[in-house]
Amino acid sequence: MVYCWRCGEENPDDAVHCKKCGALLRPKPYRGHYEEELCFGPERRPFWGLIFGLLIVLAGLIWLLEPYVPWLTWRNVWPILVILFGIYIILRAIGMWR
Q1: For residue 80, what are the domain limits?
Q2: Is position 49 within any domain?
Q3: What pLDDT does 30 receive?
Q4: H helix intervals, the chain
Q5: What letters, b where the CB count within 10 A reaches 16 and e where it falls short, cover 4-38?
Q6: CA dist., res. 71 & res. 68, Å (int)
Q7: Whole-model pTM?
Q8: pLDDT (tens digit per residue) in 14-52
C-alpha cells in the first residue's frame, strides 16, 4: 500500500493519483533539456530584465553625454538598437544563440 503525501490516505500499490485528494503519488519522470530551458533560477536570468536594465543605463549615458557628443542622441541610437535586437532574434530562431 502507498500512502498519500498530502492527505495520508491509503492507496493501492499501482495507484498513480490519490483516490481521496487526487495528489500525484509518484514523482514525474525527468524531462531533461526541456525543463532546463524553463529554469529561471540563480544560474539563468530572464532575458527581458537584462534588456530593460541595459536600456536604462543607455538612456542615462545618452542624457549625460549629449552635451559633449552632439551625434549621441536617441534619434541616432534607436536604429542601431533595433538592428542589434533583430540580429539577436534571427540568431535565436536559427538556433545559433541559446
Answers
A1: 45-98
A2: yes
A3: 57
A4: 33-37, 47-65, 74-94
A5: beeeeeebeeeeeebeeeeeebeeeeeeeeeeeee
A6: 9
A7: 0.42
A8: 888 889 988 888 766 555 555 445 555 555 556 777 777
